[in-house]
Amino acid sequence: MRIASKGWVVSAIAVAFAVGMTAAAQEGPAARGSGEDDLALAFEQEAGLTPQEQLGWADEKYTTVVQTREYAARLLAAARQADRPDIVKINCLNNKLMEINAQIQSFEDRRNSLREAIRLNDNDRRMHEYRVLVVVYQKVQSLRMEVEACIGEEMGYVGAPAVTVLQDPNLTPFDFTTVDVPEPLLDRPPHASGFY
Questions:
Q1: Domain for residue 195, yes or no?
Q2: Cα 171 to Cα 166, 175, 178, 179, distances in angstroms
Q3: Contact (Cβ atoms closer than 8 angstroms) between residue 54 and residue 130
Q4: Domain assignment of residue 36, given as a range
Q5: Is residue 176 part of a domain?
Q6: Is residue 44, in this structure, part of any structural domain at all?
Q7: What is the pTM of this model?
């Protein structure tokens, strides 16, 4: 009886494993997140791009990443010149600006490598450099969102907030901030010892 039940358990595990592997294989692109979808779409589109189109894409995106650096630099300058500078915000923006500068340097190097691969007619290297450019561009876009997170919700407001207080005229005019509180009446507890 025990041998037969072990056989059923092993069979059930094998069937569950096979069903799980089939389901995992069928998930495909639908299981990916939106960031991965954008990256996968860029990689799928690269097969149809000519070398000149890839270089044009790189040049177009280079202006975008430089604008991201300028945006972060403007926010950092504004944070430093504020009436009451927030050191946490300044440090966050400074760190993100340094990361963006490093990514831009990488983007420039890869763009030059892409030009070199196109000049040498090296398709494998060209495709590799293009893929790296796509990833670096996505990283810069992510850093832009992190820069916006550094500044917080303050960018959503223009000017100082306005506070309006409505008071019901039927209420008694009493200022509760100036209430006189009487001294508490304290009864001293009895002594615990007769010697005191």
A1: no
A2: 12, 11, 17, 17
A3: yes
A4: 32-156
A5: no
A6: yes
A7: 0.56
Tokens of 104: 């831009």
Give the tokens for residue 110: 């890869």
Per-residue pLDDT of 79-110, as tens digits, reads: 999 888 889 999 999 999 999 999 999 999 99
Classify the phi-psi angles of 159: left when phi > 0, otherwise alpha if psi is within -120 to 50, otherwise beta. Answer: left
DSSP code per residue over 85-150: --HHHHHHHHHHHHHHHHHHHHHHHHHHHHHHHHHHT-HHHHHHHHHHHHHHHHHHHHHHHHHHHH
Q: What's the mean pLDDT in 11-38?
A: 52
Whether 192 is covered by a domain: the verdict is: no
Residue 1 identity (one-letter amino acid): M
CB 112 within 8 A of CB 61: no
Q: Are 104 and 41 in contact (CB under 8 A)?
A: no
Q: How many domains does the chain have?
A: 1
